[in-house]
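Here is one chain, start to finish.
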Amino acid sequence: MQKIIIRGLFITAMLMLPAIASSAEANALLQEAEAVRAQELSPSAYKAAKEAYTQRWTDKANVLAQQAISNSLVMSRTFPQLIESRDRMHVSGAIDVRKDLAERAEEAFGQVVAAVEAGDMRRAKKEADNAKLLTYQAEVVAAREQLTRPIAKALSDSRKEKGNVYAPRSFASATDGMKKVERLVNSNPAARGQLYNDSRKSLEMARTSQEIGQLGSLVRTKPETAEAWFYSRDNDMAAIAKTLNVNLAGAKSHEERVTLITDAIGQLTGQVNSLKASLAELDDTRTSLGLARFKLQQKRDAEAKIAKLAKLFDPTQVELFLTTDADVIIRMKAMNFPSGSAIIPATSYDLLEVASKAIDLFGDRVVRVEGHTDSVGNDDYNQALSERRAVTVKEYLDARFAENNRTITSVGFGEERPIANNEKAEARSQNRRIDIVLVAPPIPAN
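Its structure:
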């Protein structure tokens, strides 16, 4: 009896193997289709494939899934600018700003997709012209709302506080900055890195003028406030002087105090330069230290800086760690690009600004932006996607550090360098990442 039961179980298992294999193949093809955005770029074939798999029409489903993948790749290769413009339209929140325009743009995009799915590339290219115009218009309207309106509001608030009267330079700088952003939004909304940086700077200047306006108005209505402000300023200067070990007792005016502090900083800078010159003369000593000790010192210096930065970072969003080569890696864990897109989500710019503070602290290091994907989907597609995402982040950092002459490069590794097993969805999400690497300087030459 036991043998009969075992034999029955064995036969049942053998009969189930094809179904299990088919299910695994279905999952793999659907995952690949989703990786190339088939839900958006070939929705009809993708939906039909899912329904066929549900009905266990495996052969038909496999063909439909492959067709969805093929259509999506055709869309990506033929209309990359249209797709990116649409992505920017979405991340800018166009649907909340001009719903009618966003819906028209989406409908026009759907016409392009339908033509590709029908195999009519001539019609697809014709429809793409209209879709490009509408997505561009929606993108500009949304970017204006997102990037220039906050500056305009801050300037209005500043004017109410007489910021334009008490802080004319700051107010004028913010006004000029807003006009610059407006011009760039209209001419090149794709330059999101520069747009976000210029918008941020202008907004800061507008808020500064508002604060100065509030102070000026307060002093005018309550003259005694000027005395409190004066002593507050002197207390700040005294704290700086104490750190520099400078005695301000003999200074008779604010200008003299500033001069004493400036001279002290100049002397310290001279001492630093002198020490650097002395180090440059220690070729023999430096050589005897060897690469290992040099790297050890680099690591110690980096660890000290990382400890200073620890309070700035939420470890669930940004991770900062040191490699054996003394490189510092800023892992942007919470930078979640839209599927298949290289457009930075609006919520991720704050993360990039925090990362920029770390880059500032490591001023002597070359910055390398690395893009990574999971293993789902077409290898070439993943490689290109990782490169595009790395370039997008690099462009933001280029704009952020435009005045610092920082060397910033980018590279995409596709699926080559996973940090987790690609078998599980949670692990795959870890592999889809941006790493900002602060490359350790090489050992000085003799």
